Amino acid sequence: ALSADVVLFSFREGKETDLFLQNISVAIQGHFCPAAVLDAKKWELEEHSFEPFFKQAKAKLFITPQMLYKKGTLLPFLKENPTSLEKFLGPSRLVLLQPFETYFNDPLNKKELWKTLCAILKSLIASQELSSTKP
Q1: Could you report how far apart the first and last alpha carbons of the chain are, in Å?
Q2: What is the pTM of this model?
Q3: What beta strand segments (E) does 20-111 contain?
C-alpha cells in the first residue's frame, strides 16, 4: 500500500465490504494506476499510529468508508478545503464512500461512484503528467 498511487482503507466491516473495496482496487489498477487495499485495523494494531504511513505513502488518492470518522488515529490527518469542499487525508485527495448499503442496494450508485473516481483519477493523472513535463 505504501507504493500504490491509490489506497483504499478497509476497516474490516464485513466480507462483502472488503470484496467491494478489492473490486474497486482491481478496476483502478486495470484502467489507471497501481492501487491497494490497506487493512486499517491491522495497521493500527501493529503501528499504533498512521503518521509513519503518511510520511512514506506515495498515494495521490485515498478512498475510505465513513468509518473513518470513528477512527481517532486517522482523524488528525483529515482536512477539508472550505471553498472547494474537497477532502484530504494526509497530503492527498480523499474520496469518502457512502454507506456500503447504498452501493449494494442500487447499482446506479456503483456506476456514479465509478464515474466520480474516473474523473478524479483522470484529473490527477493529467496534473501529474503536466508537472513531470515542466522544466
Answers
A1: 30
A2: 0.88
A3: 35-39, 61-64, 78-80, 87-89, 92-96
